[in-house]
Specification:
- The protein has one helix and 15 strands; from the N terminus they run E-E-E-E-E-E-E-E-E-E-E-E-E-E-E-H.
- The protein has 123 residues and is mainly beta.
- Strands 1, 3, 4, 6, 7, 9, 11, 13 and 15 form a nine-stranded parallel β-sheet that branches.
- The longest helix is centred in the C-terminal third of the chain and has 7 residues.
- The protein is globular, with a radius of gyration of 13 Å.
Length: 123
């Protein structure tokens, strides 16, 4: 499993698109797309106070904060009790705890080719 090796702290606000590899934890706010580098394993954790206003694209997403934008998750999407996504969601495997919310359409991904087409870098 990929380890978290980068952090956007609670007091931090980032305006602009982010491209990352490995593991990224967001406790603050990102105004812009958050996209994992293609061809690399990726883990994105958005904590309870964390918020992203833009598209999110990664392999594994653990969400307990908020995303306002489309989410593309190539492997596993874990939505914890305070998670909220306002936008459409593409995922392969979904784990959704009681209290988590999605305001948008859910699109399960069944074929690897479809994942590759959707997971284009946008940052």
């Amino acid at each position: 499993m990929t380890e978290i090796d980068s952090l956007i702290g609670e007091q931090m606000r980032v305006v602009g698109h982010l491209m990352f590899r490995g593991g990224l934890r967001i406790d603050g706010v990102v105004i812009g797309n958050v996209v994992a580098e293609a061809g690399q394993e990726s883990l994105l954790l958005i904590a309870g106070q964390g918020r992203v206003e833009g598209e999110v694209c990664c392999d594994h997403l653990i969400l307990n904060g908020e995303i306002k934008g489309c989410v593309m998750c190539a492997h596993l999407l874990e939505m914890q009790p305070h998670a909220c996504i306002i936008g459409d969601v593409w995922y392969r495997v979904l784990e959704m705890h009681a209290g988590a919310r999605v305001i948008g359409k859910m699109h399960p991904l069944e074929k690897a080719g479809r994942v590759a087409a959707i997971m284009r870098p946008r940052a």
